[in-house]
Write a structure and sequence with these properties.
68% of the residues lie in helices and 0% in strands. By secondary structure, the chain is mostly helical. The chain starts with a helix and ends in a 12-residue tail after the last helix.
Length: 205
Amino acid sequence: MKEKHITSGRKKQKQNTRDKLLEASRQLLEKKVTLTMENVAEKAGISRATVYRYYTNIDSLSMDLILQLDVPNPETIFSNNEGASHKDAILGIQKAYLDFSLRNEQTSRQFLAAVLASSNPNMRRGKNRINTLKEHFKSNKVDLSEEDKEKLVHLSVLLMGIESIITAKDVCGLDNRTATDTLSWGLQMILKGCSVDKWSVVQQF
């Protein structure tokens, strides 16, 4: 979003226009329509020139869309998992991000498409998941080398985002429940192989 434009002049009117654009985008995504600057403008009842005053391209609009969502908060996840075993805590992190991806599936898919099409290094996916898992291992003693912890973090991330949901549903043909059950089972098997059940109980954060 072009912050300079939104914060100058008639702020309330500009905020209302921005909200219209985001709501139009959400409605299009709910109908599984691929977003373009043109169809967002038409849906919002706003000129295409106006849309470009707010967003440089569809990638920047997609980024703004995902930022408006209720992304899982690590502190809330940790609080919910307090006193849980390491295995259950990590599975809890997975569940939080899978539930988020399914609640916001079309927006997440659009964001992923924008990231893949963009050359902007600031548009990265998975950062929240990686940071949450790293914070978990940083705050809790585990019987793994630093190298193995890093590998476990990365492998776990592969099983808890929109990418894994797309693979489970589009490639494997699974429904939502079967997809989440399968991804949870996969992470459980990985954690079992790492002898996670032998680790101590999760500490307070």
